[in-house]
Amino acid sequence: MGSVELLKLFVIGLYLAGTILSLSGILVARKSLRSVGMACAVAGFALHTFDMGLVTSQPGNSLTAGAFYYSLFSWLLLLIWFLAWWRLKLGFLALTISPLALLFYISSLRLAPMHVSTPPTLLGLFFGLHIGALFLALALLAVSFGAGLAFLHLERKIKTKEPLTGFRKDLPSLSTFDRAVHWAVAAGFPLYTVGLLSGFFWAKLTWGKVFSWDIKELTSITIWFLYASLFYQRMVTGRQGRRTAILAIWVFALAMLSMLGINLLTPSHHSFSAVPL
Q1: Rounded CA separation 107/175 (Å)
Q2: Residue 146 belongs to what domain range?
Q3: ∠ CA(231), CA(147), CA(251), 5° rounding?
Q4: Which residue in 19, 27, 121, 196 is deepest, having the highest Cβ count within 10 Å?
């Protein structure tokens, strides 16, 4: 086993340990377990960052490899989680984001090479505006997904007047969850719009047409309309609470269906292929 493969195994081990310890610490209300879990996640993130640095330093267009996309998304999920934990004290997001980051990192190791036909002079621009913007938007959407789930759970407990036991006693208030949804949507939707528009621009340069009725493109536009509705309700009408939390959950679920279903299983311009076992 080479040093690169060993490095990836260490990343998986640390992410797995961080996920298990964080989830256990939250569910049994043990701060010490949560702290160790966070430390494992941070250590794994540091090694993951080093791993991506090795990939991008290799000769050739490593940024166009399908496996790197999933690895990058895993890295961005954790980056946004750490930011939300630092700024909003939302450690509970480990319940959703940590397992997702682990899933996408492992998935990145099972993808066959996939190269995008992008002119070298436009590669950096394409990667930053299209992939970077979209993945940041989806990572922020993961925050609204986790916050939305927590909001609905806590709201149901409060409405039914059930006692808050176990980890629920340490949950933030409903307003904190609602503020997290607001923060994620306010930052995420403009990024998603930039990513989508730059993708159409890239399609024009690559295939000579802006829209090709590809299933990935249709799904992305559907996600944009739902995301736009969520953004409008939060930022323009000022709507809060249950309805926007539910919409945030559905938008994120559709986005994950697109990334894990369409990209892996459906023939399209954006398909990735899994490496045979």
Answers
A1: 35
A2: 118-265
A3: 45
A4: 19
